[in-house]
Amino acid sequence: MHDFKGRDIISIEDFDREDLMYVMKTAELMETNDYSDLLKGMIIATLFFEPSTRTRFSFETAALKLGAQVITTSSAQFSSLYKGETLFDTAAVIGGYADVLVMRHPEKGSAHALAAGTDKPVINGGDGPGEHPSQTLLDLYTIMTEKGTLDSLHIGFVGDLKNGRTVHSLVTALKFFNPTLYFIAPKALAIPEEYKKMLDDAAITYHVTESLDEYLDKIDVLYVTRIQKERFSDPAEYEKLKHVYVIDRNTLSQAKPDISIMHPLPRVGEIKEEIDDTKNAVYFRQAWNGVPVRMALLALVTGKFVLKDERTLHRLVKKNVLVSIGTDEDKKTLLPEIQHMHQLGYNIYATDKTSKFLAASGVPNTRLHKISDKASKPNIKDFLAEKRLDMIINIPTGKGGAEDTDGALMRKMAIGQQIPLFTELQVVRFLMQALD
């Protein structure tokens, strides 16, 4: 799962939860240790065909801090793309010069086109309104270092949620950490329906509003984005919306005292400078975090770094457990064990009757629909296919019928996906002792 050598970093959708945490731990080590000779003798090509300050400089700084050399182009007009060369051909040539290619380009899907032309790792530094995976990783790293966890946080997004690639990628990654999300935007810039559907399928709670004030007292992290002038075809529409939300000290007075204000930068008036010296402003630290995170990516895709102590990784990852218990007697018998798992911080998912029983017993859980109920979301089949479950406790009724048929399908898929499966009461009890 964690074999990053030679891997393209193009979409955050290519990461599962443990991949994300693997990068987080690697970045932490990059920040706290000296790896100045790790990429000695290697060359990193930075191909930036769209304006960039933080992404380009932090990738180049990361490469230099690891001992690599950097070759670069900063505009399409200074490359053969200006003459009509395809990205495929560009990659075929530059791949012969460099060990890793990092690219920013204004067209969605351009990173895939570049990767098709070379067997060298390609890292997407932003493809127009598409994705920006390394920004997502540094955003996650910032949240983790500021809040001490990525799990079960209340995270708000405000600004241009329609065009914001940083928002789209971060929302996609956060689905693995059971957040509650708040989307704050005018209707013209609302979060696209495809992301709401993704969250519905993943059983993630979210709220959509045009009011900045409505949920401020609940939000742990407020991710502010600028209204992107370059994405508007009508200048008048941009002028109407550009300062629709402004974060100032009055905003902070209505928020949780420890709210963290993030921004991918640059800002253009949506966060007042009076916020900069408050404990809540983390956006400059967020930008600085780009260096250790991008060091981690370069170290991993070149195969020069492997995280040896995976026990540390597993301590960082909160597990998702699906519980499906057949008889009422077995539900009552295992209730103390399930309560204990919840107290240990596990995210509990359950099938219909088990979910109702656990909720009535005071155990928070998320209901998943059975595999046979194909049209209903969130569905066990999707969670298994995406490897979003780390453990399954399934105690069959032993009486046959539809429930056991569904259980058999679930057990078969779990085995195929190599997800730990427990089907006996006594084994589950032993498991609880092992977790302690």
From TrEMBL:
* Metabolic or biological pathway: Pyrimidine metabolism; UMP biosynthesis via de novo pathway; (S)-dihydroorotate from bicarbonate: step 2/3
Q: What class of enzyme is it?
A: transferase
Q: Which UniProt keywords apply?
A: Pyrimidine biosynthesis, Transferase
- Give a short account of what the protein does: Catalyzes the condensation of carbamoyl phosphate and aspartate to form carbamoyl aspartate and inorganic phosphate, the committed step in the de novo pyrimidine nucleotide biosynthesis pathway.
What Pfam families does UniProt report for this protein, alphabetically? Answer: MGS, OTCace, OTCace_N
Q: Which GO terms describe its biological process?
A: 'de novo' pyrimidine nucleobase biosynthetic process; 'de novo' UMP biosynthetic process; amino acid metabolic process
Superkingdom as given in the UniProt entry:
Bacteria
Q: Which residues bind carbamoyl phosphate?
A: 54-55, 104, 132, 135, 265-266
- EC numbers for this chain: 2.1.3.2
What protein is this chain from?
Aspartate carbamoyltransferase
Q: Please report the organism this UniProt entry assigns to the protein.
A: Candidatus Wirthbacteria bacterium CG2_30_54_11
Q: Annotated Gene Ontology MF terms?
A: amino acid binding; aspartate carbamoyltransferase activity
Question: Which segments constitute the MGS-like domain?
Answer: 313-436
Annotated L-aspartate binding sites = 83, 165, 226
- Family membership noted in the UniProt record: Belongs to the aspartate/ornithine carbamoyltransferase superfamily. ATCase family.
The record describes its quaternary structure and partners as: Heterododecamer (2C3:3R2) of six catalytic PyrB chains organized as two trimers (C3), and six regulatory PyrI chains organized as three dimers (R2).
Question: Catalyzes what?
Answer: carbamoyl phosphate + L-aspartate = N-carbamoyl-L-aspartate + phosphate + H(+)
